[in-house]
Write a structure and sequence with these properties.
The structure is a single chain. The chain is mainly beta. It contains 1 helix and 9 strands; from the N terminus they run H-E-E-E-E-E-E-E-E-E. The protein has one helix at residues 2-31; strands at residues 66-85, 91-92, 100-110, 116-131, 134-151, 158-175, 179-197, 202-213, 233-251. A hairpin with a 6-residue loop joins strand 5 (134-151) and strand 6 (158-175). The longest helix is centred in the N-terminal third of the chain and has 30 residues, at 2-31. It is elongated.
Length: 252
């Protein structure tokens, strides 16, 4: 009898403990009731939160015209012919001048938006003609060019460009043996290259330019009258100039 009573008391206490734990767990679960689902939203960078947007920091042209000046230099290759004859059968033909350095300056303006530019170029170069490994003549050339370029990707930092130019050439050839001669005539040409805008004001570029002489008749240095050739006779002709250059420009 006592054992039965004791077992009943233990079962009653165990049942009461289990019921209390279940009620407590149910109360805790009912306390967490999320009002709305969790949604992740992107953080927008604004001056108020101290964040700056990540973007391509490329200096951009505005909608106004800008002037610029620049310095240029590189290598010049002349297509030049020189013939000296002491008789109809005795002729000397020195080689074209080897490629040599040149220097120049540019001044002009960029159009609104930066898609084009027009500029004047002054270039100075010289070359030596040789015969049998001996210098036989010097040729000094001055170019006055008016160029127009179309610029691709004007809103980017790398800008390919193509263009054309017209101008005037003055070339003077001097030889201790044959004397001297000056050739002056209009020129036409094309150019292409790639510019890199370092900042709003500074630009550097590399390119190539081909300039062709528009000379129609070749004139003897001296002596010829009509169809009669007077010896000694010297003829020269600067046909074209190809330059490979680098420039540094400052845009106002």
């Amino acid at each position: 009898m006592n054992k039965t009573l004791l077992a009943s008391v233990l079962l009653s206490a165990l049942f009461s403990s289990t019921t209390f734990a279940a009620e407590e767990l149910s109360t805790e679960n009912s306390a967490y009731t999320p009002s709305e689902p969790l949604v992740l939203e992107p953080v927008v960078a604004t001056p108020e939160n101290g964040l700056s947007p990540i973007e391509d920091e490329v200096p951009k042209f505005d909608d106004t015209m800008h002037y610029f000046v620049g310095l240029t230099g590189g290598m010049a290759d002349m297509s030049f012919s020189l013939v000296h004859a002491t008789s109809s059968s005795d002729k000397v033909s020195p080689s074209s001048p080897d490629a040599s350095g040149f220097a120049g300056a540019d001044i002009g303006f960029y159009t609104a938006g930066g898609n084009g530019r027009i500029y004047y170029s002054y270039q100075k170069m010289s070359g030596e003609s040789e015969f049998e490994n001996k210098k036989i003549a010097d040729t000094d050339v001055t170019l006055h060019l008016l160029s127009a370029d179309y610029i691709f990707l004007a809103d980017k930092s790398i800008n390919p460009f193509v263009g054309a130019h017209v101008g005037y050439m003055i070339a003077e050839t001097t030889s201790e043996q044959y004397g001297s001669y000056k050739q002056s005539n209009p020129v036409l040409g094309i150019q292409a290259g790639v510019a890199w805008r370092i900042s709003d004001h500074f630009t550097t570029e590399i390119g190539a330019r081909h300039t062709a002489s528009q000379r129609k008749e070749q004139t003897d240095w001296a002596g010829s009258k009509g169809e009669e050739i007077v010896y000694p006779n010297t003829q020269s002709d600067l046909k074209s100039i190809t330059t490979f250059y680098m420039s540094a420009n400052y845009r106002f």
